[in-house]
Design goal:
With about 230 residues, the protein is α/β, with parallel strands linked by helices. The chain has a single domain, classed as Aldolase class I (TIM Barrel), CATH 3.20.20.70. The chain contains 8 helices and 8 strands. An 8-stranded mixed sheet has the order 1-2-3-4-5-6-7-8, with helices on one face. Helix 2 runs parallel beside helix 3 and helix 7 packs parallel to helix 8. The protein is globular and about 45 Å long. The two termini are about 30 Å apart.
Length: about 230
């Protein structure tokens, strides 16, 4: 289900002006999630659903201005019509396509990956921290197949939201020991104003200086490391 559409974004596709399509529903229950309205069934039911055709029409209107579309969520790979939608974007409008995913659905990713230009895959925590980070909905082994697929792409990023109590600098290094060297890794600052679980609201985020230290520590494992805080 498409829950929302943002016509113009300068931050969701690297170096491109893009539109953003938000898909409702998620197979994880990350307590620190900042989009609870796209995860909880009771909140999701209140969201206005957009048809794929109406979104395609909105994208066509912006053709020549936006260069790409970012498909995010929730978890967009849960949408059974995603491949059809991606193919329509490519054939009818010829936009670059980026998919944001939690990396736990390898079969669904395999079905669309040849038609996308960029994948941003969330790595939630160190392997032993995955049950806590995902509400006991996934383990790290679920992610590795997706990681291998994504690393075959020309353009991708792996990213971790640095949530105190969920993941720290040594945890990020543990993640990279499992994935092996990567092209691009992003460390994202945690914002606690709105979270899926109330216990994570108001938690103080790591200071930017700490994220920069982590970035320096993992620079031998990634061609580039960005800090977004």
């Amino acid at each position: 289900m498409i829950s929302a559409f943002e016509g113009t974004s300068l931050i969701d596709y690297p170096e491109k002006i893009c539109s953003v399509v938000f898909f409702g529903g998620c197979n994880l229950y990350c307590p620190f999630c900042q989009n609870p309205e796209l995860v909880k069934p009771d909140l999701l039911a209140e969201q206005y659903a957009l048809s794929e055709q109406s979104v395609l029409e909105r994208l066509k209107i912006r053709d020549g201005f936006v260069e790409a579309v970012c498909l995010t969520g929730g978890e967009p790979l849960l949408n059974p019509g995603l491949k059809r939608f991606v193919e329509a974007v490519r054939t009818e409008i010829d936009l670059l396509v980026k998919v944001d995913t939690n990396g736990t659905l390898p079969d669904q990713l395999a079905a669309v990956i040849e038609d996308v230009d960029y994948v941003a895959l969330d790595l939630k925590a160190s392997p032993e921290g995955y049950p806590r980070a995902t509400g006991s909905q996934a383990g790290f082994d679920d992610v590795l197949d997706c990681v291998r697929m994504v690393k075959e792409l020309d353009a991708y990023e792996f990213r971790t939201t640095m949530v105190p109590g969920i993941v720290d600098g040594p945890g990020v290094r543990d993640i990279l020991r499992e994935t092996g060297p990567v092209k691009k890794y992003v460390l994202q600052g945690f914002r606690s104003a709105k979270t899926l679980s109330p216990e994570y609201q108001g938690i103080a985020a790591y200071p930017r200086e700490y994220l920069l230290e982590v970035a320096e520590d993992i620079s031998d494992m990634a061609e580039s490391v960005d800090v977004r805080a």
